[in-house]
Amino acid sequence: SDYPGQGELRLLIPSLRQLTQDQQYVALINPVWIPYAPALTSAGVDLSYVICIGPLDKADHLWTLEQVLRSGHCRAVLAWPDRDLSTKELRRLQLAAEAGKSSGFLFRSSQMKQQNSPAALRVLIKPPHQLDVIKCRGRYFGRPLQLRA
After folding, report:
1. Nearest one of 7, 15, 5 to 49, comparing CA atoms
2. pTM for this model (two decimals)
3. Would you say 146 and 129 are in contact if contact means Cβ atoms under 8 Å apart?
4. How many CA within 13 A on the CB side of residue 148?
5. Quick one: how many helices (H) and strands (E) in the chain?
6. Rounded CA gap, 37 and 21, in Å?
7. d(CA 75, CA 54)
8. Is pLDDT larger for residue 80 or for residue 25?
9. Based on the number of CB atoms within 10 Å of its own CB, is 26 exposed (0-12), middle (13-18) or buried (19 or more)?
10. Are 26 and 16 in contact (CB under 8 A)?
């Protein structure tokens, strides 16, 4: 999404709720805004299993993201990269996630939708409630999905 706060985190709330209720850690790396704890709690997310890391400088961001994914300590890692990542860097992150048995979610600008990526799923959030599936292994959507408000 080009505008943080368009519902990107809301898409993951059911998974975050389940993971934290199962006592699995979730990491948020360099979130654009400090997550609003009361909203996460009211959605059922157990904050004692949420780790918020940042702000990080450009030199540390990619390294931190890769290490958290690879560690296997966090089952889900949500990150807001502060710059465009190369295809090679994206592949490194994918391999780190596979090694750590983690799920990685990168929130990036829509300008990156043309870039090749090893990601299994890529979506574009468009205001007000539209989701374009750019890439989904094994399935072709062909048209945007409408989200409930």
Report:
1. 15
2. 0.85
3. yes
4. 0
5. 4, 7
6. 16
7. 19
8. 25
9. buried
10. yes
CA distance 91 to 126: 26
Is residue 16 within 8 Å of residue 76, measured between CB atoms?
yes
pLDDT category, 6, cuts 50, 70, 90? low
What contacts 18, CB < 8 A, 6 or more positions away?
Answer: none
As given in the structure block, the two tokens for residue 105 are 């979610």
- Examine the pLDDT at 9 and tell me if it is beyond 70: yes
Pairing relationship of beta strands 25-29 and 74-79 according to DSSP bridges: parallel
Q: What is the mean pLDDT of the chain?
A: 87
User: Tell me, what's the pLDDT at 15?
Assistant: 96
Give CA 56 to chain center in angstroms: 17
> If you search the block for the tokens 């654009």, which residue do you land on?
32
Structure tokens at 42: 């009211």
Q: Which tens digit of pLDDT belongs to each residue from 43-75?
A: 999 999 999 998 788 778 999 999 999 999 999
At which residue do the structure tokens 């750590």 appear?
Answer: 100
139: CB partners within 8 A, 6+ apart: none
Residue 145 token pair: 């999905």
